[in-house]
Amino acid sequence: MEYILETKDLTKTYGSKNVVNSVNLHIAKGDIYGFIGKNGAGKTTLMRLVLGLAFPTSGEIKLFGNTDLSKERARIGSLIEAPGLFKNCSAYENLKRFSILYGGTDEEIKDLLKLVGLEDTGNKKAGVFSLGMKQRLGIAIALLGKPEFLVLDEPINGLDPAGIKEIRNLLLKLNKEKNITIFIASHLIDELAKIATKYGIINNGTLIEEISAEELLKQCVKRVIVKVDSIDKAVETLKSKYKDLKFETNQNEIIITHDNLDTTKLLQDFISNGVLVKEIKDSQSDFEDYFIERIGM
Q: In this structure, which of 16, 34, 54, 236 has its CB flanked by the most CB atoms within 10 Å?
């Protein structure tokens, strides 16, 4: 697997506190990597370490498979916290000024304005833009120089639903059409769930878990847990009457994974086959439950 970003035991200490604590992160080419944690969990600090805006106390960072970070950072675009805009300049003028630093032709600037939906703002000053427009302009600035990797810290924080949707659609477009790998930090779990292909969960500076969207979906399904007196008879009932039903056993429990199971009929089928049901309960978790359980949000 080709990794865009890897960290090994990455640590940043302020005073006696490890704000980033021995983190091993893996972001593959093509990922939209959702970085989830409470405020103060270490998300921004880790991103700053990756970008060279802060220096690690210990550990290693690899970008595009290399440790020559000064060279590889030229392939990254970033938006950390609020975009630093020239408020008295138009969207075009902002991009023109930043292009001196990051590169970018006049044609590329016009293409970026169109890409982020700001091509018709004319001479309107960035200072009077809506928050969503400012964020889109910030992303456009981050895209100067045609980066392969985009690092975004809370780009949808504070936006209204329309603004969130605009940013979400833009990120999906960048990932699918421009083949840009995206590292996005947010505490808005439901929104990340709409775009992320992989997640990293951080709490108090420690990376708790990395999990793919596919694996997470398997964790967040409806389950019925049935305690019975005879596992053998219960399994026989399920195999004969519910051929496509997924289930597993655990001592005296049957754990059934389903989309829409009629539990009343299930009970009747168990009883008619001589299975005594001692307890039945639903167990359903969503994305938010999964993350809260791990980081106590």
A: 34
